[in-house]
Amino acid sequence: MKPQSSISRRFLLSTMAVLPALSAPLLPIPAAAQTATMADPLPSWNDGAAKQTIIEFVQATTTQGRPTFVPPERRIATFDQDGTLWVEHPMYSQVVYCLDRVPAVVAKKPELKNVEPFKTVLSGNREAMAKLSMQDLEKILFATLTGMPVEEFNAEVKKWTESAKDPRWKRPYTELTYLPMQEVLRYMRANGYKTYIVTGGGQDFVRVYAEQVYGIPPEQVVGTAGGTKYGYAKDGKPFLTKEPKLLLNDNNAGKAEGIHLMIGRRPYAAFGNSPGDRQMLEYTWAGDGARLAMLVLHDDGKREYAYGPAQGLPNTKVGAFTPSLYDEAKKKGWTVISMKNDWRRIFAFE
Amino acid sequence: MKPQSSISRRFLLSTMAVLPALSAPLLPIPAAAQTATMADPLPSWNDGAAKQTIIEFVQATTTQGRPTFVPPERRIATFDQDGTLWVEHPMYSQVVYCLDRVPAVVAKKPELKNVEPFKTVLSGNREAMAKLSMQDLEKILFATLTGMPVEEFNAEVKKWTESAKDPRWKRPYTELTYLPMQEVLRYMRANGYKTYIVTGGGQDFVRVYAEQVYGIPPEQVVGTAGGTKYGYAKDGKPFLTKEPKLLLNDNNAGKAEGIHLMIGRRPYAAFGNSPGDRQMLEYTWAGDGARLAMLVLHDDGKREYAYGPAQGLPNTKVGAFTPSLYDEAKKKGWTVISMKNDWRRIFAFE
Fold first, then answer.
1. ipTM for this model
2. Which one of A289, B15, B177, B320 counts the least CB within 10 Å of its CB?
3. Packing angle of the helix pair B93-108, B150-163 (nearest 10 deg)
């Protein structure tokens, strides 16, 4: 297991979620495109066990007459986001968003200017920011993710995703999605699966861009969620304000609980990459019939990042799945996806 | 407004939800049936303002080129259940379920046999049961709706809905759905709307039968929801236990907040019948473009029940919408559906 401080930090960082901008729209593919998909539904994957497992699972659950056939209405597939559908390194995009929002928050509340942790964030000193305590981070998350009307928050996130860029690739964060996983999303949808994001990140944050980036509508995004408060504007119009009240911490056991709360059915397929996904994978795998549980292994330091078990290190970075989860995967028959070996291409822009 | 005690009671009764059995499966209608629907999509409705309003709304939002056109992915319609989709009198079906479950709970925990309120419920004395306090009811709800694995709860509800019968009509509760509203559900789905139940009743309870009874899958049922707790059985299999912890009270402002939490989009159409639906209707109505807000008025004492403003009485029974909501509806242009005048047939079995 990770050192407690690291786990708590990850918990906290993802307690409320935030993210990126609009690359090429990837909406559910039209009927015409499905023929091409059927030829090779996963062209960015190298031939191998991982690709084969996905294809065999889809065939097993969608072919009429097979004992493993699953009726269309029960076809649910869940995907972790950070580190599974897109890059999570060196920092969750939502945390970048929160830090980027601090100047605007301080402009509205000048009394925060000389108060920590806002003072440190405003200084731009990365080294000092990396040393912020959990309590400090919590203050930043609450100040930047709550207290405003839902519509205002959505507009801010949208604006940010359209302008902010990842420093390594110099592209909007929304372009840093993994092409092979986009292919899996489309392949499963083409076969009647409802695809859900089940993220430790903030539900409201991810919902802003999920439809454009992944073809996943807001109602199919389950994430860490806070409460809202219904009220009326001066003109009598009702609106919802985001409250600093945690309803669902969609990490670890919270992922299985969140799936029950928001979907109400056990998934047939689940994809993750870190210890926070363990229970979602276990819960999915424990169902009857054919089930698919897959872990993305970050072992490609050249094209993306290498961390966690790929380095032979147990607890090196946020988002790694620990050797114990890696071992559980091997023992149970879950499939580990090697980014280095299984993915021919990683990004669409390459 | 209702006397506070009545409101609180309603709140409590619906704090966790429960319901009925399997009448004719009403799944999304196949393409072949849609032609008939197009001839008259609402054959159980009399011609009049209510029917016309529904049809005009659907045409306004689904006809390409109209300024009020709504893209398919944004077509969300929400329906209260009790008193809107089916009979809520003289008692919510879920409350009947909870009372019916008491003997089984006591059989497992014999120490409750001589403890109130279980003793009174076991006596079968209806008059004494009607006098149970809110605290008593709360104990019954918690004892019968929480503390068991999700699968066990689902199986119990399914069994009950297949056997329990309403005393007036001598039919399973699930047959007491309003045929005109079933037609609205199918008509809207045939026109690309995603139909949701947004109920003060228990989310887990309604999800058990909603697909079979209304053609609405579990993931499109939003209701009063409690937490679950992830754990492992002796054989290592994970399972979820229903906890006595309220996450969402899906009544009043909670309906608008619940829609944001579970769907993340503002509905274009909403149907309700009681003060608990007020905020859902307001929130829906406050959106841009064409919106539909409708209230079912229970004014048919012969074929169903008459209560609330239909009797000229402000606060007669649970589930009535008060004159003030009735007035708000008239003032804002919401459409009131008269069961007596607008509905040619009320039940499919008639």
1. 0.88
2. A289
3. 120
